[in-house]
Amino acid sequence: MSEELGMRLEELESDSSLPLREGRVRAKPSYGNGAAVFWFLILTGVITFAPCILLPEWRSYQAANAAQQREEHRVSKLKAVVDRERRQLNSIQNDPTVVARLAQRDLGFHRPGDTVVTVPVDEADSFAGLTDIDGNELFIPAPVPPPVWFSRATWWLPDLNYDAIFCDSSTRPIVMLMSMSVIVVAVVLFQRRSVLQ
User: Fold this and answer.
1) Which of 16, 20, 71, 115 has its CA 20 to 30 A from that of 54?
2) Torsion 130-136-138-140 (CA) sign
3) CA-to-CA dists, residue 114 to 95, 117, 174, angstroms
4) What's this model's pTM, rounded to 2 decimal places?
5) Cα 47 vs. chain centroid, distance in angstroms?
6) Residue 16 pLDDT > 50, yes or no?
7) Distance between CA atoms of 129 and 80, rounded to whole angstroms?
8) Whether the predicted pLDDT of 42 surpasses 90
């Protein structure tokens, strides 16, 4: 069998119409029929891989921004409570009529000759404002708009739940693996094709 191969090789060397290649030589990639398919596969892989990376980061940015807005709202409410308490403390320290009212209302003191009429009033807790600050109040943060270039580039996309595809821990690895597989297949197929040419 090796003799037959040796004779065939001598025939090929003697035939001047067929150039003999010594080893594999990488040819320049052909941008003919396969180029469109190659770039389609690469773009498909990149377009499906990029949201797996960018969308979870965008959602975490939105969550951080919402938490910041919530804390700013809480701080402003606390500042309002502190200002109210400072005004009350200032009036207690400097205004004798306020001290007299507090003594009558809270301690039951009254001047001789005054007629005291008790009126049932719901006791208002002075710390009731603090419970609203701790989360009983419904606060809806302002949504974070995406960048203008992103809105212009994606206006045509249907309104689907992309978080379920690109952010969910059960589907995200699958989509990432599929997109990387498409890129690897494109590179392997077209690299082999360029070597054979």
Assistant:
1) 71
2) positive
3) 21, 10, 83
4) 0.59
5) 17
6) no
7) 10
8) yes
Both structure tokens of 13: 């060397």
Those residues with Cβ within 8 angstroms of residue 167's Cβ, 6 or more apart along the chain or in another chain: 55, 56, 59
Mean pLDDT of 144-157: 87
- Yes or no: say if 61 and 144 are a contact pair by the CB < 8 Å rule: yes
Kind and range of the H or E element at 70? helix 33-94
* Residues ≥6 apart with Cβ < 8 Å to 194: 26, 27, 28, 29, 30
Q: Which pairs from 55-59 meet CB under 8 Å and 24+ separation?
A: 55/162, 55/163, 55/166, 55/167, 56/166, 56/167, 56/172, 58/146, 59/163, 59/167
146 residue type, one letter: P
Distance of CA 151 to the CA centre of its chain: 15
* Three-state secondary structure of 94-156: HCHHHHHHHHHHHHCCCCCCCCCCCCCCCCCCCCHHHHHHHHHCCCCCCCCCCCHHHHHHCCC
